[in-house]
Design brief:
Layout lengths: L3 E3 H16 L1 E2 L14 E11 L4 E7 L7 H20 L4 E3 L1 H9 L13 E7 L2 E13 L6 E3 L6 E7 L3 H6 L6 H10 L3 E7 L2 H10 L3 H15 L4 H9 L7 H18 L16 E5 L5 E5 L3 H11 E3 L13 E3 L2 E7 L2 E3 L2
Parallel strand pairs: 7-11
Antiparallel strand pairs: 1-5, 2-3, 3-4, 3-6, 6-7, 8-16, 9-10, 9-15, 11-12, 13-16, 14-15
Helix pairs in contact: 1-2, 2-3, 5-7, 7-8, 8-9, 9-10
Length: 345
């Protein structure tokens, strides 16, 4: 009985097979179009795997354990079969024969990884032929939209409720979708004033990125739940319409792009960030056609363009993440609203 995985997880297996078989990464721009740059050469690949109770770094191939040419040819064939399967199947989770064969060929019982980094690759360059070991995050345009910024109780923004009536407050407590309730509250004259974020670590990380970022994201979260607009770029445009500063939109866009880039490369809401980028290599992306391309982190402008264009807000479970219903503190009323960011395929 083989493993069953979702399309995102099988896409990670496809990337692993492709990288090991070809030893190359195809660099692209923010539109995922090829750029005038030779392929990046990989000389080592490693995964941080779980054995059930602990994590260990396992080298899959390297100078002392190269991929045999016959194995490379099998990986290319199995990768092509897995690519076809990913594009054709309608099931969100399924058992893949070529995918399980790839894992078997590589003696991997699982390719479960931890954190921002999905695969470590030693990438060679003309100035450094032996290469540098870099962490890469894998994202797939096949299957369900992947998450850039995961929801948790730490990603709740606490808002103070103002200018409300008893009826509008009661309207926030009914069992309806949270966006409908917030929009009705605002349409009836109520307002939400940002009070704080739920996690001290998240607040610290936002402050470290930019002192105005907590307020910026508060505006974006408020606009998302009160208008239904989800695109990050559109939310920035909408928030900036009434700004007195003619340069407000460009400043806000710069700070939000910086936040998205930091999140993509290592920052999480639950751990105090030391500004070190974990996924320093960049993003490996499985396109709609199943092609594997690379957005290098060194080209930070292109990576930030990609993140901003593809990112949108989504609503997670209100019960799991403890948000969406008003509560009273010291005579004032508040509500938590959650920030979750996904990639649009």
């Amino acid at each position: 009985m083989g493993l069953s995985k979702n399309k995102g997880e099988w896409s990670e297996v496809l990337v692993l097979a492709n990288v090991l078989a070809t030893g190359e990464l195809k660099p692209v721009d923010a539109d995922l179009s090829p750029i005038d740059h030779p392929p990046l050469k990989t000389v080592e690949a490693a995964l941080r795997l779980s054995n059930g109770s602990a994590w260990s770094m396992e080298t899959v191939c390297g100078p002392n354990s190269p991929i045999h040419p016959m194995l490379a040819r099998r990986l290319i064939r199995l990768g092509a079969e897995l690519r076809h399967e990913l594009r054709q199947t309608q099931e969100s989770s399924f058992e893949s024969s070529p995918g399980n064969q790839i894992l078997s060929e590589l003696n991997l019982s699982s390719n479960t990884v931890s954190g921002k980094v999905d695969i470590w690759l030693r990438v060679a360059s003309p100035l450094n032929p032996s290469g540098e070991l870099l962490g890469f995050s894998i994202k797939s345009n096949i299957g369900s939209p992947s998450t850039l910024f995961n929801a948790s109780k730490r990603t709740n923004f606490k808002f103070k409720l103002t200018n409300f009536t008893g009826a509008s407050l009661q309207g926030l407590q009914v069992e309806r979708p949270i966006q409908q309730r917030i929009k009705k509250f605002v349409d009836d004259g109520g307002d939400l004033e940002l009070d704080s974020v739920s996690s001290d670590e998240f607040s610290h990380n936002l402050e470290l990125t930019d002192s105005r970022l907590e307020a910026d994201l508060g505006r974006i979260v408020k606009a998302y739940y009160s208008t239904g607009q989800s695109s990050v770029t559109k939310l920035i445009e909408d928030i900036s319409l009434d700004a007195a500063d003619p340069y407000f939109e460009s400043k806000l866009e710069y700070r939000v792009r910086k936040f998205l880039l930091n999140v993509a490369l290592g920052m999480t809401p639950g751990t105090r960030w030391d500004t070190r980028t974990l996924a320093y290599g960049g993003y490996l992306i499985v396109t709609d056609e199943g092609e594997i391309v690379c957005l290098p982190a060194q080209n930070s402008d292109a990576l930030a363009d990609f993140l901003a264009a593809k990112s949108y807000l989504d609503t997670p479970s209100t019960s799991r993440h403890a948000f969406g219903f008003p509560f009273e503190e010291n005579g004032d009323w508040f509500i938590n609203l959650n920030l979750q960011i996904r990639f649009r395929n």
